[in-house]
Amino acid sequence: MSLELTFLGTGSAFPSPARGASALALRREGQCWLFDCGEGTQTQLMRSHLRAARITKIFITHLHGDHFFGLPGLLCTLSLQSNPDASKAPLDIYGPLGLRSFLWRSLELSHSQLLFPYTVHELVPTPDQCPAEEFKDFSGWDRGEALPQAPPGRVLHLDPEEDSYLLVEDEQLVVRAFRLFHRVPSFGFVLQEKPRPGKLDVQKLKDLG
């Protein structure tokens, strides 16, 4: 399996002309996965050899602005570059609880209509992931409020046996999220390649001694 990493932004809260806010692209087999999407990420993509239209999954580590304020703009740009296609697989977005509401409200308030489907899979944090005074429970954020056009998606809870969240699994790899300690609930992501046993001709080995 071929994997290629491109650092689109390694800056923190204050980006510079030569150093964008946090964003990392992983390319595998024609797909592009984006990890974090700080302000200006779409501009950095244009400067790279990557094609933004190839992005199929986006992973957000935490809800500090320098890690996800570029997301609504990127989605709108992708929409402008796409054609309506009801059969197109949705763009999967993974991130902490509260991300779905942020995206829906940002697109709704800006009157932005995306021409492609997307889903938001939210990771439910645990209170011990950040200082107690910084922890906010977003589980009831939209309770009692109708969000008819809010994107679908799963709500993922910590698997206590694995101490992680299972996000993606296919024939080649498994993607899990694990908890990090920061000022707000944060997550790291692990891509684990599955074993690839070779084919061994035992009889031929015996014949060759």
TrEMBL record:
Transmembrane segments: none annotated. Pfam families: Anti-Pycsar_Apyc1. Keywords: Endonuclease, Hydrolase, Metal-binding, Nuclease, tRNA processing, Zinc. One of its GO terms (molecular function) is 3'-tRNA processing endoribonuclease activity. GO terms for cellular component: nucleus. CDD domains: RNaseZ_ZiPD-like_MBL-fold. InterPro entries: RibonucZ/Hydroxyglut_hydro, RNase_Z/BN. Its cofactor is Zn(2+). Homodimer. This is RNZ1 protein. It comes from Polioptila caerulea (Blue-grey gnatcatcher). The lineage of its organism: Eukaryota, Metazoa, Chordata, Craniata, Vertebrata. The gene is Elac1.
